[in-house]
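Summarise what follows for lecture notes:
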Amino acid sequence: MNNSPTGDANDANEALSGPAAPQRVLEVQQLFIKHANGLRGLIGALFPDMDLADDVLQEVFVVVTEKAATFRADGDFRGWAYGIAKRKALEHARRYSAKRKVGVFAPETLELLCESKPEDDRDDSEVRNSLSRCLGKLTPTLREMIRLRYTENLSPANIATRMEWTSEAVYVALSRSRSLLRKCLDAAFNAGMH
């Protein structure tokens, strides 16, 4: 067995047969729940439409459940699940890019993000440095909103209460911030490709 989300279906069915199968699925689902906030943060950072982000997260849960047998108990669940999340995000980015929908990274940028592995510190540091530079270009108020939303996981309504804004104004500000970050990151990754 491997931790690849594209493992052989016959191997998965064989490994999940027998009395341990339901327990194995339950263990993997519990690991998913443990890592759900991180996965939600990753997906939410890529898609400003929270309904779309929730759809992607649900699809990741389905894939993780279906492929429970391909995950080794001693494996890196975070890396495995993040890989699945990145591939699902890329599928959605391609789909929405083809429909000319705004609000998602260019598929090329998302592919670069998908190439980095959580355990690869060098790739992560490059992404973090680019993100840090792009965050630095936002106004202090927008940076604080991003921090509250993605670090403290506050809802836009809670951010509005804390910052004494209307919920609508927070939604607009968050959308604007994500758009600015997306453009900045797209430019940074495209510059890195040349």
